[in-house]
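Batch job 17 of 40 flagged for manual review because the log was empty.
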Amino acid sequence: RVRMFLDPDTENFNGRIAAFKLYNAQLTQAEIQQEMLHIRPVRTANLWQWAPLWGSGDVADYSGNGRSFTAANLSTEDGPPVGWYH
């Protein structure tokens, strides 16, 4: 399980996220390491949401579950840090 805790009153996230994947299951350490190398999900079982974060505006959920949303202030610099396929 990977968690990131930030206090919104005192801490800001200073980094880049190319895409995020949410699962409705606990992944093993090996699965997490595998997913870190790929933008597209390697494991699709229990995938709740997968959204590449490229630019502001409407963000499509490519998991097929229809959980799209609207985002603002997303970076478009340099594209994603990892390839579609490793």
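Reviewer: the log was empty due to a logging misconfiguration, but the result itself is present. The chain has one helix and four strands. Unflagging and moving on to job 18.
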